[in-house]
Amino acid sequence: MTEANSLRSLKGVGPRMLERLAKLNIVSLSDLLFHLPLRYQDRSRIRAFGSLRPGEEVLVEGTVDLSEIKFGRRRMLLVQISDASGSILLRFFHFSNQQKQQLAHGVRLRCFAEVRRGPQGLEMVHPEYRLIPDTSEPEGPSETDKTLTPVYPVTEGLHQIGLRKLMTQLIEYLAQDKIQLTELLPPTLLAEKQMPTLKQALLFIHQPPTDTRISDLQDARHPAYQRLIFEELLAHYLSLRQLRYRMQQHVAPVLKAGIHAQHFIDALPFVLTVAQQRVYAEIEKDIQQPRPMQRLVQGDVGSGKTVIAVLAALSAVEQGYQAVIMAPTEILAEQHFHNIEHWMKALDIQVTWLSGKLKAAQRREALAELADGASQIAVGTHALFQNEVCFARLGLVVVDEQHRFGVHQRLALREKGRDGNRYPHQLIMTATPIPRTLSMAAYADLDVSVIDELPPGRKPVETVVLPESRRDEIVQRVHRACQKGKQVYWVCTLIEESEALQCQAAEETAQQLQEALSDIKIALVHGRMKAAEKEAVMQAFKQGGIDLLVATTVIEVGVDVANASLMIIENAERLGLAQLHQLRGRVGRGEQASVCVLMYKKLSQQARERLGVMRETSDGFEIARRDLALRGPGEILGTRQTGLLQFKIADLQRDQLLVEQVARVADRLLENHSSCTEALIERWTGAASRFADV
Ligand code: ADP
Ligand code: MG
């Protein structure tokens, strides 16, 4: 930043002001320029009282008719002012004696506030106000604003008026080209999209002409906003594409399926679905290239992603490389380990289990097997990317249920297998189907495959929504199901933050259910149990030794027990759609018809809609689309992902159409104008440093 671009060149900016601005993340003139209004006010016109509507924020002027202190439940000052067209009431709950005296009969006032409907007609509560001297001075302080008035995010010690003063100076500099503002979008693109230049857009946003519709600005529909949003989405998209481009400059081992994969497929008790075959073929094509694969496989709950992961792993093993499969929870990782170890025995392939809960001796042994290459496949939790873990020849990294991991974790695991310029291939799997626009924005660094078909014979899960008050009835239903030899999940959910409370609730529920249903075999699984205990319970449930499994949301992902056909979810109204869909996906895996009971205590309007969606559809993509509309992108991708999706002004839900345009423009830009991409990324994301440490 040159001296001319420094904040200190603005009048009124000294060390104290610099500190306050820094609190708003403003350290340069360009930061200040991109400090955008939250909303706008119209202080350009004085409105007649007769024209006001409740809810409007308006500037008015009138004469005090009446001023009195009222003693009711709360003491307050009531001031009635009027103009030729009518009158309104000003209401003050806090006021000084001096104020009371100031607001006397006959005094002229100018007020700004929101108009509300009060008991006696329209009123303003605590308006900003100013006394107007009798002699009207046309150029004086009583002049109205020449533009719409922006309202900025502010901080302690720096209020609207102060910030607006700085902005006014800055905008003047900008208008006179006294500060440097580089236009980063090529002129051809601006012309093609009929977008204003960056300078035009910013001038407009900070000082919109008074005839602009405020709602167009606040809903970001105005071209000036669209232009900035376009640029921000583009910068974000380019940063991911660049990440991908850089990765493709590295080399990766050439992997290829062979006899192992053939044996494995032959031994499966089913044939792969067409979708599975297609996705497997896409993966095979990638890993035969000497460049690291970066592929995301999206497949709804139960679509059969695990066999695809195993097939990819076998291609690595076949060529003398190792593969690692990482899952987000102990229960899921363990289940993968058991399945995979069982399958691999037949092929004489060594599988190693690694979790944070291994005993020291087991752990040493596991680490040694991976380091010397004796073990060909590693399965585990995030313990896999801890420092001590080394691989002899890692060729493939599989991250299952990636929405549970952060982007950094997946990149860290890829670093593990790095050998100079050589990287392992990477396969990311997720059952959280996300709408296409969101996926374009969030996973632009990945190629995407979709398993859009469930194995045949799956029956849709019938979903019912019932109030807690019918608990006894539900318990009886569970009883009948168990007596008929069905297996049941009873999921206890509480507010996410407190795992301890959730476990306690599960323990209590298990106890109550056991008392009520003494002839049923009930077991409990929750996050605070030892790994071995959890594993024993899950195995017993899988083998049919347990009728009713009371669980916390630890069973949310991946758990696969085909005979389970009834699930009760407590406090369902507190869970998001994605999580409910995941949980429900634990049933409906076998041949029999399954039922999921969503039990609630209290339904808000939004919760009612959410549970309604669950009842209407079992299509993960449809659920995700509705979820996006109801809750916004941050929630859908999971909080751990949102670091990557923090936008200053763009909103993936609102700006879906722009996302598609951006994707089309970005690749063209990367080819023809790569010089501006770095600057764009830097301007909007500061991404240069963000991925540097992985
Ligand atoms: P997810 O995609 O949710 O990870 P899984 O890989 O756990 O799904 O598969 C769910 C169940 O479906 C498993 O029991 C798996 O063996 C079975 N399965 C996978 N593919 C097929 C198929 N093509 N036909 C029948 N069953 C299959
Ligand atoms: Mg799975």
Main attributes of the structure:
binds magnesium ion, OB fold (Dihydrolipoamide Acetyltransferase, E2P), Rossmann fold, disordered C terminus, 26 helices, globular, alpha/beta, seven-stranded parallel β-sheet, single chain, binds adenosine-5'-diphosphate, eight-stranded mixed β-sheet, 4 domains, 694 residues
Would you mind describing this structure in some detail?
This protein is α/β, with parallel strands linked by helices. It folds into 4 domains: 7-40 and 149-219, no CATH class; 46-140, OB fold (Dihydrolipoamide Acetyltransferase, E2P) (Beta Barrel), CATH 2.40.50.140; 259-451, Rossmann fold; 462-617, Rossmann fold. It has 26 helices and 23 strands. Strands 2, 3, 4, 5, 6, 7, 8 and 9 form an 8-stranded mixed sheet that branches. α10 (274-287) runs parallel beside α11. Adenosine-5'-diphosphate binds next to α11.
List the helices and strands and how they pair.
Blueprint: H1 15-23, H2 29-33, E1 39-41, E2 46-47, E3 57-71, E4 75-83, E5 86-92, H3 97-102, E6 108-114, E7 116-118, E8 121-125, E9 128-131, E10 149-151, H4 160-175, H5 187-193, H6 198-206, H7 214-218, H8 223-248, H9 259-267, H10 274-287, E11 294-299, H11 305-318, E12 322-326, H12 330-345, E13 351-354, H13 360-372, E14 377-380, E15 394-399, H14 407-416, E16 425-430, H15 436-442, E17 447-451, E18 461-467, H16 471-483, E19 487-491, H17 499-516, E20 522-525, H18 531-542, E21 548-551, E22 564-569, H19 577-584, E23 594-600, H20 605-616, H21 620-631, H22 633-637, H23 639-642, H24 656-672, H25 674-685, H26 687-690
Parallel strand pairs: 2-3, 5-8, 11-16, 11-17, 12-14, 12-15, 13-14, 15-16, 18-23, 19-21, 19-22, 20-21, 22-23
Antiparallel strand pairs: 1-10, 3-4, 3-6, 4-5, 6-9, 7-8
Bound molecules: adenosine-5'-diphosphate and magnesium ion.
Adenosine-5'-diphosphate binds at residues 270, 272-273, 276, 299, 301-307, 431, 455, 558, 560, 589.
